[in-house]
Specification:
By secondary structure, the protein is of the alpha+beta class. The chain has two domains: 153 residues, no CATH class; 113 residues, no CATH class. The protein has eleven helices and six strands. Strands 1-6-5-4 form a four-stranded antiparallel sheet. A hairpin with a 5-residue loop joins strand 4 and strand 5. Helix 3 packs antiparallel against helix 8, helix 6 packs antiparallel against helix 7 and helix 7 packs antiparallel against helix 8. The protein is globular and about 60 Å long.
């Protein structure tokens, strides 16, 4: 952490590079608009950093509460931002700001399809026979989901998982093991897709054009009880971290991505929170990878706790 006389770490949009998953167009003007959201995130992160520096909570319960409050404010900020957003880019379900404050529950987990998603191609059209969007032009969003589909399937092989569900187990600092998110394939994935389509149809009163064809593969959020434990542990790690120690921040990052709170917006909230809190704790502003959320959903704890752009990562790895 910085000394009192030091200037606060600078937070800019460069610390919050736009996720490839948000880049669903080939139009440079549209992509510039999408990337502009990083400025809003940087502004929100600067506000939270200033509050933390003014409050200067001591390590322990006071700091945990301060971080919890900062996170709650950012959830509210993301919802209010969604209210001002006219719509979403690309194909998919219509923009619904309320989803940015609806809490996840065990009967309605988030199920994110990995691999081929034709709706992420620019100009694709619905193919009812294939139950997929086909055609159109390639986009960064389409490419990154193909890449993580391959990585998810590779993890089934690497872990020797014989069935259609791979549970990511999360080991906490005290040795407890908590069930994290799941990767599902095959018949289990087809069932998840049908259940997801049925939920959307009940909510909207009309059958959605959801991609259920091909070879589905999903990342499914952790159970509610697990997410509560993981979120609390992330706040404990951050609240008790030593100044300048990047390892608790790295562990908390993985935990937070395993513990989303709302149906929509958790990635932006988590990214903004991690940059603000990282600047406060480390005295330097971390820069998040564009695919941080996908790494944490797919690569498992061992593969996603440290990332290439982390500050002083050599210290965290014990090689410095």
């Amino acid at each position: 952490m910085r000394r009192t006389a030091d200037p606060p770490p600078e937070i800019t949009a460069a610390n919050l590079p736009t996720p490839e998953l948000a880049e669903r167009s080939t139009d440079p003007a549209v992509l510039r608009q999408v990337r502009g959201f990083a400025e809003a995130q940087a502004t929100a992160a600067r506000v939270e950093l200033r509050r933390l520096l003014d409050l200067a909570p001591l390590p322990g319960p006071d700091r945990v509460r301060a971080f919890e409050s900062a996170h709650a404010r950012l959830v509210k900020w993301r919802y209010e931002t969604a209210l001002r957003t006219p719509g979403r880019l690309g194909r998919g379900l219509p923009h619904d700001p309320e989803r940015f404050r609806v809490r996840l529950a065990d009967d309605s987990p988030n199920c994110d399809r990995l691999g081929y998603l034709g709706r992420l191609r620019d100009g694709s059209t619905w193919n009812g026979e294939a139950r997929l969007y086909t055609g159109g032009a390639d986009t960064p969003a389409h490419r990154v989901m193909l890449r993580y589909g391959r990585r998810a399937l590779a993890r089934f092989e690497q872990t020797g998982t014989p069935g259609d569900e791979l549970r990511n187990l999360v080991v906490l600092s005290d040795g407890r093991v908590v069930v994290g998110n799941s990767l599902v394939r095959g018949d289990r994935a087809r069932r998840v897709g049908r259940e997801l389509a049925e939920r959307v149809a009940r909510r909207r009163g009309v059958a959605p054009q959801m991609e259920l064809g091909g070879e589905p593969l999903y990342a499914v959020t952790a159970p509610t009880a697990s997410r509560s434990v993981l979120f609390a542990e992330a706040m404990r790690e951050l609240g008790h971290a030593r100044p300048g120690d990047v390892a608790p921040w790295q562990r908390a990052r993985y935990l937070l991505y395993q513990a989303p709170l709302t149906k929509k917006g958790s990635d932006a909230v988590t990214r903004t929170f991690l940059v603000a809190v990282g600047a406060f704790l480390l005295g330097t502003t971390p820069t998040l990878e564009r695919d941080t959320d996908l790494r944490c959903m797919v690569d498992g704890q061992e593969g996603a706790t440290t990332m290439p752009g982390d500050p002083s990562v050599e210290v965290a790895l014990g090689t410095g």
